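Is zinc ion placement plausible here? Inputs below.
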Amino acid sequence: MTEPVVLGIETSCDETGIGIVRGRTLLSNTIASSMDEHARYGGVVPEVAARAHLEALQPSIDAALQEAGIGLADIDAVAVTSGPGLAGALMVGVGAAKGLAVSLDRPLYAVNHLVGHIAADILTPDSEPLEYPTIALLVSGGHTSLLHVRDLTTDVELLGETMDDAAGEAFDKVARLLSLPYPGGPEIDRAAADGDPGAIRFPRGLSKASDLAKHRYDFSFSGLKTAVARWVERCEAEGTDVPVADVAASFREAVVDVLVTKALAACADLGVPRLLLGGGVIANRRLREVALERAAAAGVTVRIPPLSLCTDNGAMIAALAAELISSGRPPSTLAFGADSTLPVTEIQVAEAVRA
Amino acid sequence: MILAVDTSLGTAVALVDADGAGRSDAARADALGHAEVIGDLLVEALSAAGPGEITHVVAGMGPGPFTGLRIGIAAATAFAQGRDLPVIPVPSHLAPALTAIETEGVQGPFAVVTDARRREVAITVFDGADADGIPQVVQQTTLVPAVAADLHLDGIRRIDVATLSALDLARVGARALAAGRTLATREPLYLRSPDVKLPGAPKRVGL
Ligand SMILES: [Zn+2]
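Reply from A.M.:
I modeled the complex. Tokens:
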């Protein structure tokens, strides 16, 4: 089976993603989001997300099949995110994937969400195949991780991750401080359009020499968030208007600076002239701009999958499973669950032992 | 054959013939680990049932702890989708009610009581079976503080259950199907709204 047709199920956060691939060819990428239901709470509510997944799964699978122009009988394997992510949300996908795989009598591949973000890149037919090793920076509302990818299916190492908030979460929280709606990313971007990114020098988390010794590739955004809160309070105390555009632009600049600096430091330290970006926060244009500009200066090639494959989706899960299949890996057993803190080194979960 | 799946308490999977005769039954009593065991239990129940075509899938709709409950519904729904079969949603309490009436010979009114976490229990009061052989609900499922359950029941016989028979769940589904009745919607019996709080003003950090 060189070009397996795989249906991928992704329910780790607030997107119900169903993707269908044939080998490295994308056939469908269907996403149902419960984001609107979370907006009034200012962040993802796990129980609301899990309920929405259960409702969205069946229609999403139907829609994905229709888009791909195939039937379930044409599926060679089912893939599902086992973790990391929200436990209750993940379990809906795991339950559905097992039900579907047993019903169709097809192999099931349980895979790692973060590695899935990297696999999204192989679904871009117009670009050269992904070269290894590569550094990968994955930034979303749920994660901020820096990875060293030596091989997509066998060798991924976590270099660093956020110690507190994910970058996307920081955008949401700062948006609230500035009385901007959820989700914060696009709102901050809009507000920052007319702002001066150099107006306020907000702190860069874990970037001091003393921090770099232990946390060279780790991130921290809570100090930055507090600094913004303090700035806003000072304006209020002084009775002056908060310069929202400047605060937004300066905050965004601090986040982008730290992300790009650490990613390029990893490229330089490890002698890897390639950087792959993934995760929903890559939608932030300023992040892409700064990354491309500074990477070019450092002689690092940057790859950015199309945005629809950067946000959480089922196609990347299917793509990763298709690679596992093509490299001859056996399917997962049925005895796995959801692992909300699944380490990135576990690319496939519960791999069956070949008899 | 009719396949029934329920994860409102433990994890229970069974197959019955259209007339309700049991074909196979696979269950784990553990109130956790539904996601881990559901696949193997499906395989176990299917292979033990022997040859025959599945025509319908019964899903136990709860009440039950949300996270666990959803796993069975998701698996049942996806299984049905995989073979293009209809799903028959059945309130989970109907299964122990049928067991009480037909296996244990309970007469008159009785209450099925299950743990609903947070020091509450879910209670449904039944009285015998109706003409279709389906346990008759005389008081809809409600959540009651565990300490107040006896007072609430006011002498009605109380049957506490920690596991249920998916065979009996399948039988209830088979009878509903034969009678052309719908016993529940596709909405799980959550009985509680999600825990959410609307954000207030941002906490002050101090200058
Ligand atoms: Zn993600």
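Short version: Chain B touches chain A through 43 residues (CB under 8 Å).
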